[in-house]
TrEMBL record:
Its cofactor is FAD. Catalyzes the oxidation of L-aspartate to iminoaspartate. Keywords: FAD, Flavoprotein, Oxidoreductase, Pyridine nucleotide biosynthesis. It comes from Paenibacillus sedimenti. Residues 436-524 form the Fumarate reductase/succinate dehydrogenase flavoprotein-like C-terminal domain. This is L-aspartate oxidase. GO terms for molecular function: L-aspartate oxidase activity; steroid dehydrogenase activity, acting on the CH-CH group of donors.
Length: 534
């Protein structure tokens, strides 16, 4: 059993800080909600690294919204529902496609500069979209541009206080209500931050896997602390592996945007053959899960470690103009996109599930909200449609702030009760344990899964449960405890879902089974899993 709190502490013995709204995380969800909340409230923004470190910064493709006269919310909704493989919430998708354009206007008002062509937004198309509806910035640096614009405003906002390099250990709750968070400062001192509303914007859990496009900070903290606090965790078996991450000696798994295939790039196996026609009629623009598994098949069949992405048939001008960041990055490793095929392989990219929320971002714990990748709003279903993640963060961020305005003042004082005194420090080096966890997840809970493998993976992970009985003091310990929490939930859900759908593929159950599995697997601490039918 995973304990309620990671550390034993008496709240009365540590400093208290009060604010109106606590925002945990600094990606697009955190920055945007902090700025919107600060229009009427005092905001404390807590980030475990800095404002410029988040998954958003690495988002290349863009943000999906209905802008063109040739497009419509109905088209966007249909594309999202098809990609989501029957598990999207139609109500949540409706909210996304109708409110997305206003969210984009908010970003523009906040200083984001999207690319223009002839005075109009330069829209591109990505996999599984029927229309050109992806706004981008600086070609392939959309996330970085959004973070730049929003973080600049955040730093200047008198109603926003920023705590960099601080770690949220746990949420403080009592009787199903969130009172704030227990935070560790860079010097190791702990502080209780009390707030009228707490918004989790802590991103995803890419570090569950050995190979990921996510930064080091994506350790599933928000999902784990929300789970311990009593929130519901939904759909965590659905992990999106990006099909095309750079796979080259000495280079990190750098994301090669789907937009490269959107602009006409081919996938070729190690023999130089195009292969997607054997897997899907949409070829290179098939849904991500299909493309990623096709690549793994080709890698296995040809005993290689990668396939090639080939855009050499397009003009040098188009490649450099549309993909300046990717072009320069590859050049640093001696790869020229205009003349070379780029070696790529799948890498963990995005978790479709997370902390279950309603249509205003509120969780099962009162006053606790979740926004962005950490949340499960119902928009993504079993497989996220490309570029819907940035839109989701903006749309539901706006709705969270509307809901927060209605909250009455927080009353009462919670008490933190120690469950059992912890005395021992963690024994094994965290770096070893983390690597073992990542390899276990990649091997048994990656792109292809079986009951036997998942059970073996779960058993290996469960051997690490003793970490929760130790006296943790370092950020690395907390991160590993959170990763382990997420890994156990993911393998449990993947073992239970005896079908293949979206980002969850079972070799022993290769078909989609709507009769038995058109439902969500939902976890709540201390209870058996719940199944909620669509």
């Amino acid at each position: 059993m995973i304990p309620r709190y990671l550390v034993d502490i008496d709240l009365d013995s540590i400093p208290h800080v009060h604010t109106d709204v606590i925002v945990i995380g600094a990606g697009i969800a955190g920055l945007f909600t902090a700025l919107r909340a600060s229009e009427t409230k005092k905001v404390l923004m807590i980030t475990k690294k800095s404002l410029l470190d988040s998954n958003t910064r690495y988002a290349q493709g863009g943000i999906a919204a209905v802008i063109s006269d040739e497009d419509s919310p109905e088209y966007h909704k249909e594309d999202t529902l098809i990609a989501g493989a029957g598990l999207c919430s139609p109500e949540a998708v409706d909210v996304l496609v109708h409110e997305g354009p206003n969210g984009v206007q908010d970003l523009i008002r906040m200083g984001t500069q999207f690319d223009l062509e002839n005075g109009e937004f330069a829209l591109t198309k990505e996999g599984a979209h029927s229309q050109r509806r992806i706004l981008h910035a600086h070609g392939d640096a959309t996330g970085a541009e959004i973070v730049r614009a929003l973080s600049e405003r955040t730093k200047l906002d008198p109603n926003i206080e920023i705590w960099d390099d601080h770690f949220v250990i746990d949420l403080i709750t009592q009787d199903g209500e969130c009172f704030g968070a227990l935070v560790q400062k860079p010097d190791g001192q702990r502080v209780y931050v009390r707030g009228n509303a707490t918004i989790l914007c802590s991103g995803g859990a890419g570090q569950l896997f050995r190979y990921t496009t996510n930064p080091d900070i994506a350790t599933g903290d928000g999902i784990a602390i929300a789970y311990r606090a009593g929130a519901h965790i939904q759909d965590v078996e659905f992990i999106q592996f990006h099909p095309t991450a750079l796979c080259y000696p000495g280079a990190p798994r750098f994301l090669i945007s789907e937009a490269v295939r959107g602009e006409g790039a081919y996938l070729r196996n190690i023999k130089g053959e195009r292969f997607m026609e054997r897997y899907h009629p949409q070829l290179e623009l098939a849904p991500r899960d299909v493309v990623a598994r096709a690549i793994v098949d080709e890698i296995e069949n040809n005993k290689s470690t990668f396939v090639y992405l080939d855009i050499t048939h397009e003009t040098e001008e188009l490649i450099k103009h549309r993909f300046p960041t990717i072009y320069e990055y590859c050049l640093n490793y001696g790869l020229d996109m205009t003349t070379d095929w780029i070696p790529v392989a799948p890498a963990a990219h995005y978790m479709m599930g997370g902390v279950k929320t309603d249509l205003h971002g509120e969780t099962a714990v009162r006053r606790l909200f979740a926004c962005g990748e950490v949340s499960s709003t119902g928009v993504h279903g079993a497989n996220r449609l490309a570029s819907n993640s940035l839109s989701e963060a903006i749309v539901f961020g706006r709705r969270i702030i509307e809901r927060i305005q209605e909250l009455p003042p927080l009353t009462g004082n919670p008490t933190l009760r120690a469950e059992s005194p912890r005395t021992e420090s963690p024994k094994q080096a965290v770096v070893e344990k983390k690597l073992k966890l990542q390899k276990t997840m990649l091997r048994y809970a990656g792109l292809k899964r079986t009951a036997k493998g998942l059970q073996k993976g779960y058993d290996e992970l469960a051997r690490q449960l003793s970490i929760y009985e130790t006296q943790m003091t370092k950020r690395e310990d907390y991160e590993f405890a959170n990763l382990l929490n997420c890994a156990l939930l993911t393998t449990t859900a993947a073992l239970q879902r005896e079908e293949s759908r979206g980002g969850h593929y079972r070799e022993d159950f290769p078909g989609r089974d709507d009769l038995h599995w058109k439902k969500h697997i939902v976890f709540k601490r201390g209870e058996d899993r719940v199944e909620e039918w669509i």
